[in-house]
Automatic annotation (TrEMBL):
Pfam families: DUF5600 (PF18150), Dynamin_N (PF00350), EHD_N (PF16880). Keywords: Calcium, Cell membrane, Endosome, Membrane, Metal-binding, Nucleotide-binding. The gene is Ehd4. It is a peripheral membrane protein. GO terms for molecular function: cadherin binding; GTP binding; metal ion binding. This is EHD4 protein. It is found in: Cell membrane; Endosome membrane. The lineage of its organism: Eukaryota, Metazoa, Chordata, Craniata, Vertebrata.
Length: 363
């Protein structure tokens, strides 16, 4: 049903459009290595913000990240998209997926564990090694010869539960990992179950970790065929109300309504709506390969703006530090005065306040 996604996207990539994308990507890589990377290294940008980009970050296919609470249908959504099972797939009403699974194209079907995956220079996951074995033991890559995966890769994330125990038992910073993926993927899909609209504390923190990537976020209200039209209207309103408390954006998020699995609809009242919504969502995903070069350019520009502001901040702090005595006291004073320093730098260099990193994070 959705094989057109791989055929159309892959076809365009193999045609003349592929040469254009490769030329742009190569130019971006050279520009980063010659101009931006030396600046980042000189001002220790990688210690404060994001690791250095590698060749695989420029060459990889567009990626889609799926995030949601347990049993919202993330793994089933991938199976629906691929029209086949993939290695490591587990589906059930209980919390089944306890790992990050990168579903990617491969000539033969198989899986690669996390520790082997992060040393592969052809995969864009090398920098994930900093999250340690607790994460790498919960990370794997499923490879299979699927037409859709010729154009995109899909990241399945663990189902999010509520409660402090769940957060502690992971053994790694879940939100930091999500933030790392969010900076590199082309689309973030938040899945909600029509019967579970409450947003747990950890899910709320996960959504907040996507701050700055709002243009990549899409919302899917899944299993909508299990309610009738009147209930669906109320469910949609409740979902928008819940999201409004977590995502602070002036624009209304695009919400796709449907039931994304291969079984017949339980309630057929809204069949035409679900079909139209599914077509809109998959057209959005289909457009990612053609927009890949533009997205990489956009992300590189955002990174360059942040690196420039970071350089101004570090230069100012270094200039204000005494050469001999009283360094510790001066350091504490400058850190406490960081909001004032931000305002001063904005006026001096005519920089927008939105380009500055969070004060608490820098402090």
């Amino acid at each position: 049903m959705f094989s057109w996604l791989g055929k159309q996207g892959g076809g365009r990539e193999r045609g003349g459009g592929s040469d254009v994308v490769q030329t742009v990507t190569g130019g971006l890589r050279d520009l980063y290595l010659r101009k931006l990377l030396p600046l980042e290294e000189h001002y220790r940008f990688h210690e404060f913000h994001s690791p250095a980009l590698e060749e695989a970050d420029f060459e990889n296919k567009p990626m889609v990240l799926l995030v949601g609470q347990y049993s919202t249908g993330k793994t089933t959504f991938i199976r629906y998209l691929l029209e086949q099972d993939f290695p490591g797939m587990r589906i059930g009403p209980e919390p089944t997926t306890d790992s990050f699974i990168a579903v990617m194209y491969g000539e033969s079907e198989g899986s690669v564990p996390g520790n082997a995956l992060v040393v592969d220079p052809k995969k864009p996951f090398r920098k994930l090694s900093r999250f340690g074995n607790a994460f790498l033991n919960r990370f794997m890559c499923s490879q299979l010869p699927n037409q859709v995966l010729k154009s995109i890769s899909i990241i399945d994330s663990p189902g999010i539960l509520s409660g402090e125990k769940q957060r502690i038992s992971r053994g790694y910073d879940f939100c930091q990992v999500l933030q790392w993926f969010a900076e590199r993927v082309d689309r973030i899909i938040l899945l909600f179950d029509a019967h579970k609209l409450d947003i747990s504390d950890e899910f709320s923190e996960a959504i907040k970790s996507f701050r700055g990537q709002d243009d990549k976020i899409r919302v899917v209200l899944n299993k909508a065929d299990q309610v009738d039209t009147q209930q669906l209207m109320r469910v949609y309103g409740a979902l928008m109300w819940s999201l409004g408390k977590v995502i602070n954006t002036p624009e209304v998020l695009r919400v796709y309504i449907g039931s994304f699995w291969a079984h017949p609809l339980r309630n057929t009242e809204n069949r035409r709506l679900f079909e139209a919504e599914a077509q809109d969502l998959f057209k959005d995903i289909q457009s990612l390969p053609q927009k890949a070069a533009v997205r990489k350019l956009n992300d590189l520009i955002k990174r360059a703006r942040l690196a420039k502001v970071h350089a101004y901040i570090i230069s100012y702090l270094k200039k204000e530090m005494p050469s001999m005595f009283g360094k510790e006291n001066k350091k504490k004073e400058l850190i406490s005065r960081l909001p004032e320093i931000y305002i001063q730098l904005q006026r001096e260099y005519h920089i927008s306040a939105g380009d500055f990193p969070e004060v608490k994070k820098m402090q």
